[in-house]
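Figure S7 source data.
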Amino acid sequence: MPSTRDYYEILSVERTADDEEIKRAYRRLAMKYHPDRNPNDPEAEARFKEAAEAYEVLSDPATRQRYDQFGHEGLRSAGAASHDFSRMDVQDIFSMFQDIFAGVGGGTSRRTARGYDLETVVSLDLQDVLHGCERDVEFTRVDVCDTCAGSGSRPGTKPSRCETCAGQGKVQQSGLGGMFRMVTACPTCRGRGTIIREPCEACRGKGRVPRNRALSVRIPAGIADGQAVRIQGEGEPPPPEASPSGQGVRGDLHVVVRVKEHAHFRREGDHLIIELPLSFARAALGAEVDVPTLEDPHTLTIPRGTQHGHVFKVSGQGLPNLRTGRRGDLGVVVRIDIPRKVSKEQEDLLRRYAELDEQSVLPESHGLFGKIRDALSPKDARKPRKNEPRKEGDR
Ligand SMILES: [Zn+2]
Ligand SMILES: [Zn+2]
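Tokens for the predicted zinc ion complex:
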């Protein structure tokens, strides 16, 4: 899940911060929360990942502008896909921003080259949750450049050996103020061991190009807000540093589900809850009412003397469980509706009822001034407490 905190706040920078300040702020946080320095500290790891997410957005002028204008929502609108840092390997995040960390860490020999995961968001309503659905998602992801097959070199030319690391891709550097020496990815060639002299024009030497991808994604019934469907192998190819040709394992795509609020139904796990406004007369005397469900209306028998707040359970009219498919229930909560206006005849009957019930009621409505007089009559007048500021117009 992407962070919902403000990215500037995460990096502790002003909204006017320039690229250099943002980079410094991120570098500082990444060092502070790096899991090597905070072993077995999930909180630190989460901070580390959150900072990476904030940095990725704010370091790119286009995404930063979109974020400034539309906030988090703007980044996850149609066609947007972002890296899913929360599920990413720390080592992967490190190599992703290698240019920032040159000489600090990263560059450890990896197992099979694996691409980064991506994340995109789809929006569902309760009907979609009830039946499950198919969603077309479109997003942009980097792919291996066809022109140079990922090498980054103009076709017909070859990358030459990096002189900094003599083609090894690794250099020995003193880390953390000279306290110890470590082998890191070569900062000149970013660990590749080669330098591109004549860059491919299609990808400007990167070996990767952004490409649109459209997919149809099956969303299972019963999914909850915030859960994600993982589509294996639909993320990015391994980064060029790890595998120029893109050979290895692609990352995954996480399709995060947002379930829209319903005008009438509230969701509680697999159960649904709806409020049923009921007149005093029907609650007192009993009635048959049609209650809306996500499918056909259900006829509910309201017994005599039903109380405000009573919950009727309609079995099996909730949502299906994601695992078992078994449907939850619909809870119908009675809300006694007090009429705001009554007809003359109704009023007479209510007065008669109150008499029988030996209850005192307010005298018949006698206009606005009468009400104000009642409200301000000495008997009910509220004495202002000490130190209570007087309202304007109070006399
Ligand atoms: Zn290319
Ligand atoms: Zn090198």
